[in-house]
Structure formats: C-alpha cells, structure tokens
Amino acid sequence: MTQQPHPFPLTLILFGITLLTSLLPLTLGKQPAVNALVAPITKDSCTSLYTIALNSTKQYLIDLTSPFVLGPCPPDYTLVHCTAPICYDANHRSDCPIINAYRPPGFCRCMASMRHPITGACFSGNETVIRIYIASTDGRNPTSLVSADYVNICAPDNALTGLPRGAVGIAGFGRTSLVSLPARLAWDVSIRSNENLVVNPSFYNRFVLCLPSTTNTPGVAFFGANPYYLLPSYLPDISNSLTYTTLLQSPNYSDVAYYLNVKGLAVNGMSVSLPTYELTFDSSGRGGVKLSTTIPYTTMKTSIYKPFIEAYKTATNWIPHKPSVKPFELCFDTRDLGSTRVGYGVPPIDIMLNDGKNWTIFGANSLKDVKANTACLAFVDGGENEIPAITLGGFQMEDSFLLFDVPNSTLGFIPTLRGLQTTCSNFNFTSGV
Ligand SMILES: *[C@@H]1O[C@H](CO)[C@@H](O)[C@H](O)[C@H]1NC(C)=O
Ligand SMILES: *[C@@H]1O[C@H](CO)[C@@H](O)[C@H](O)[C@H]1NC(C)=O
Ligand SMILES: *[C@@H]1O[C@H](CO)[C@@H](O)[C@H](O)[C@H]1NC(C)=O
Ligand SMILES: *[C@@H]1O[C@H](CO)[C@@H](O)[C@H](O)[C@H]1NC(C)=O
Ligand SMILES: *[C@@H]1O[C@H](CO)[C@@H](O)[C@H](O)[C@H]1NC(C)=O
Ligand SMILES: *[C@@H]1O[C@H](CO)[C@@H](O)[C@H](O)[C@H]1NC(C)=O
C-alpha cells in the first residue's frame, strides 16, 4: 500500500510562503539588514597618527581617550537643550572650563569642552548632532550606505592645530554611554531598527580598531557585530581568533580612556622587576596602563622605563648597539637581526595581564626602522611625572586587531595579525552586493 501524502502540510507551507513574501517588503524595506558599519583608517606619514573617514571622505583623528567628536559645524546646525542626556554625558567628561557659556534668558543650549589630545589646549563649543552616511558591511566588503548621526561639539578653527594634514576634527572613541562616536552610532542605528532598517540586535557599543602599519593602504574600523574578515578570503572570521581580557576604568571620572589590567612585563620570558603598584590606579586615578592612539610610541614613566630597558639590553646583549636616534635610546644594526613572520627576530615583550593572558609584542611592533640599517626599540621615557605608568602607543598597536566591547568592559585582541599572515590593510574595501 502506498501512503497518500497528507494535504495539510502542503497548505501550511503554501500559506507560510505567501505570508513571508507579503511581509518581506514591509520588514526589510529597501535596505538589507545592518550587522555592522565599516570605515577606513589612514596613517599619516608626517605625524604617524591615524584618522578615520566619516561621511566617506572627511578625516578625523582617532582618539581612544576623548569622549565625543570635536569638529566643524555646518552654518545651520541645531542646538541641543542643556537638560538632554547627551548634554549631561558630554558635560561631565572634562577637566576643561566651558567658555562663553549659556546665560539666561532664552534657549538653554548645551555646551561641552574637551582637551586637545595633541596640544593639550582646551576647547569648548555648542553641542549638536550631525547626520552622515557610513557604509554597512557583511564583514567582507562595504555593502550599502546607511545614514547615522554622531554627537559633535562645534570646534573653532584653531582646534585643528597639531592634527594630521587634511584632518578636520577629532573623533572620540572613549568610554561613554551616549556621546562617543561608536556609542552614538550604535544608539542611532539601533533606534531606527523599527523604521526602515533591519538591525542585528548584537549591534551595540562595540567597535574594532585595526590600525595600519603603512601609509599606503588603509586599515579598518568596524562598528557593531562580527563577522570581521580580512584577506586572504580563506581566513575565518577574525573574531574567532581573539583573546579576551577585562578593560579597567580609572577612578578619575573625567578620564574616559581604556586601561589594561596588567600585573607585569617580561622580556624573552623573564619577568622584569618593576614597582608593580604603579601598574594599578591610586585613588585619584594616577598609574595604570592606558591605550592611546594619539601618541606614536609607548611611553613609560621613568620608574618603569629604566628596569624595562635594562632587561631588554640584557636579553639582547649579543647584538651590537648603534648610536641612539631620538626619541629612542636603544638602536641596532638591522643586518645583525634575523627576520621572522612577525618582524625582526628579537626577544618578545610580554605585557602580562592579571587574568593570566599575555599581550605579546614581537619585532614588528617593538623595533622601528629609523634610517638605513638602523632600527630602535620604540619605547619612550615619559619622565618621573607621567600620570599613567605605561601608555601603549600607536606603533605597538599597528596590525593588532582590537575589539572593544564597551558595556561589557572587555577587549578582544590579537597583538599582531602577522601571525595569521594578514594585516590591518587587508580589508576588501571594494564594494560588494
Ligand atoms: C555627507 O555627504 C553627503 C553626500 O556626499 C553630503 O550631501 C552631506 O552634506 C555630507 N554631510 C556632512 C555633515 O558633511
Ligand atoms: C553657540 O550658539 C549660540 C546660539 O546660536 C551662538 O550665539 C554662539 O556664538 C555659539 N557659540 C559658539 C562658541 O559657537
Ligand atoms: C583626570 O582625568 C583628566 C582627563 O584625562 C585629566 O586631565 C586630569 O589630570 C585627571 N586628574 C587627575 C587627578 O589625575
Ligand atoms: C605569559 O608570559 C610569561 C612571561 O613570558 C610566561 O611565563 C607565561 O607562561 C605566559 N603565559 C601565557 C598564558 O602564555
Ligand atoms: C563579558 O565579559 C566577560 C568577562 O569579563 C566574558 O566572560 C563574557 O563572555 C563577555 N560577554 C560578551 C558578550 O562578550
Ligand atoms: C574584493 O571584493 C570584490 C567584491 O566582492 C571581489 O570581486 C574581489 O574579488 C575581492 N578581492 C579579493 C582580492 O578577494
């Protein structure tokens, strides 16, 4: 006996298909789902600093330690009211005074102030919100442009001093809940998920910085959820290869920087004897190990720098020294150094984290070519009065893959992508779809 197919499932399937096709135009609209946004990062050859392109072409200095974007405002910008949450979040994040503040009567406008990360000068201005276009991505290519806004403090022209040539402002990626560039992009894209956009619920305040080591080809910033792919195309989602660690917050409320939880340093597997209490904060927020993209090289307080450089000299005592090249102290003849996939064959430096993980710095991120046949240990003595014990600088983070999860206060990291035989300059910016 042959069994007749039951008619019921077929009807259900047909009904399901009709339902789906009739709902599709409503839920998806014209836009594909937004999983993440992507933008190129350029390294400036003159300052060795990094900029991100907003609205396709306008360059902003990437600053992990600033709370919001400081840049020019269009002539017809709208003011924000002083009681708005984005005003409160921006206002309580600076030790700089606000100049030309609101005086009643009239619209109580929001102003905020910020310290220029390069010159140290204070700037204040009116707060506004600026709408731009930014590319969404499937993780492999830019797909379509979506509009999103960010919180901007209107900058006077002299705020551009010290920025890379062509940059028009400073993009703060700091630890805020509402006003940093990644925080606001995530918020703005998510609230529009019930309008014309379909947004992945995992699109919240998390971002990837992948700084390029070359000025010729851009690196990449992602905002939102993985996957994150780099060429060659057979490489799996880079987020599968990350090590995770906790990020610390300074007890100083106006400090929005991200700090690593470090217990010590090692050179060539040997622990360096350090005043380790300096690696943690005191009650006012001095000390700690900060991440900064606005200094080119890692800077250490003298009490950390001295034992570190001695340990490095000991570990490399078989390599003859060359005369110092400012700002560096210890230089080598590159013809005496081997070469590996991860740079010159020199002893690795471990930043030993309290949760047992290591951020290991290999030759590509420890030795900087300064002239023909000469490379120097790219760490700088910051003096006795440095506030952080160590500030990890741009050169040490080039071709590192760094995923900042701000609400969860975690960092997913790969100290160098060269171990995976790729670099930050390998995102395929050719538009797909
Ligand atoms: C962003 O780009 C669009 C299209 O190129 C342009 O019309 C708009 O004025 C730009 N917005 C800003 C804030 O630069
Ligand atoms: C802020 O906005 C007010 C009102 O539009 C304007 O009078 C003032 O000049 C602006 N301040 C600055 C520093 O741009
Ligand atoms: C608190 O942080 C701000 C911003 O980073 C800094 O300028 C200030 O010096 C810090 N205060 C102390 C006491 O370290
Ligand atoms: C971290 O580095 C230290 C010093 O080189 C080493 O002793 C330790 O085994 C490393 N830990 C891991 C998890 O690799
Ligand atoms: C949040 O952080 C904890 C450790 O601090 C980690 O175990 C957990 O996986 C993180 N959650 C997400 C969603 O990344
Ligand atoms: C880059 O992406 C484009 C568009 O998807 C594709 O045609 C091209 O083959 C990709 N390039 C490489 C090197 O994979």
Automatic annotation (TrEMBL):
Residue limits of the Xylanase inhibitor C-terminal domain? 257-413
Q: Where is the signal peptide?
A: 1-29
Q: Name one GO biological process term.
A: proteolysis
Q: Which UniProt keywords apply?
A: Signal
Q: Which InterPro entries would you find in this protein's record?
A: Aspartic_peptidase_A1, Peptidase_aspartic_dom_sf, TAXi_C, TAXi_N
Q: What are the recorded GO MF terms, alphabetically? A: aspartic-type endopeptidase activity
Checking Pfam families in the record gives: TAXi_C, TAXi_N
Question: Which stretches make up the Xylanase inhibitor N-terminal domain?
Answer: 75-224
Q: Does the keyword Metal-binding apply?
A: no
Q: Does the keyword Lyase apply?
A: no
The highest taxon in the source lineage is Eukaryota
Similarity section: Belongs to the peptidase A1 family.
Name under which the protein is recorded: Basic 7S globulin 2-like protein
What organism is this sequence from?
A: Carex littledalei
